[in-house]
Amino acid sequence: MNHLEHQMHYPLGDRLPPMGEAIEVAAGVRWIRMGLPFALDHINLWLLRDRQPNAAGTMTDGWTVVDCCIDSEATRAQWEQIFATSLDGLPVLRVIVTHMHPDHIGLAHWLCDRWNVRLWVSATDYNVAKTAVYDRSSFSGEANSGFYALHGMQDEAFLQHVRGRSSYFPTLVPALPTSYRRLMDGDVIEIGGRSWQGVSGYGHAPEHIALYCPELSILISGDMALPSISTNVSVHATEPEANPLWLFLKSLLRYRELPSVTLVLPSHGKPFTGLHARIDQLQDHHRDRLAEILSAAEQRPLSAADVLPIMFKRTLDAHQMTFAMGEALAHLHLLWFEGRLHRVLDASHIHRFELSTLGSTSRRV
Length: 365
Prior knowledge:
Elements: E1 22-26, E2 29-35, E3 42-53, E4 59-66, H1 73-85, E5 92-96, H2 102-105, H3 108-115, E6 119-121, H4 123-134, H5 141-150, H6 156-163, H7 168-172, E7 180-182, E8 188-191, E9 194-201, E10 208-213, E11 218-222, H8 244-252, E12 263-266, H9 275-297, H10 304-311, H11 318-337, E13 341-345, E14 351-355
Parallel strand pairs: 4-5, 5-6, 6-7, 11-12
Antiparallel strand pairs: 1-2, 2-3, 3-4, 8-9, 9-10, 10-11, 13-14
Helix pairs in contact: 5-6, 10-11
């Protein structure tokens, strides 16, 4: 969707914070950019100037951290550099995580221990992350391999790759803080004398919480609204009959209630304005993919693997393929739950989706 980027405005132009340093994007709001070992090679993290009561009954000045990056030696070293150069000699007072994906929550345990502070996160994402870290049977490579095979992916090299990924999440998130403070939709959090409102979002993560500050007209959007790529929305083996794309598209409409001048601070890409236009772009993008799938289904029943070349025109590596399969299935499931497609298990023990002869039956439950 890069050709649509010209409809966005980037107030900071091409300016990026150097690795291990922070730049100010608004009064009391600083931007950090850290590297990731994936095709999506960076994540944006945020520092919010804060002031909190302490045990002595006085106030302590410091910072709230929003999102953490994965746990790695390189990430810890970058954070140590941030502590030394970008906090004005002040401590971290709390850690907020928008959602449970490794690049957001991976280093939360270390940051919270390092500064003896509390993690703030939604209960759903905390507990799903806890399961992924400590109960590997729930996210086993074998279960995921069988799930992809059930949906038409028969490539043995890919399936072997998936079987070897049972330690993927705990490698990037080796531990979690043992306690947390729950974030919920509509919560108002006082950070540095300003109110930040929690805005829940679904489909990308179990219970993603973005943060909006009316005084600054700033939205820390996490992964819900990115300026140049479409957020991954996937069906996973742990919830095999989910309808995440419907949840995601419905959640996006929440951001239309915010002012059009809102400065969006995304987890990937550059800070931008043009939120309403971006929401329209994302809605159109997914509507177009759904139409393409329905058109293809007029020719033959489709598995998720059959949908991959329809939705993705580029070559995908094994890591990207896992996201692509989940997203293909998310689109099929939306059409299935709306009654426009019917799911069958064929003689090869593969789920395929064919045009429904019953019309829309609105199967959302």
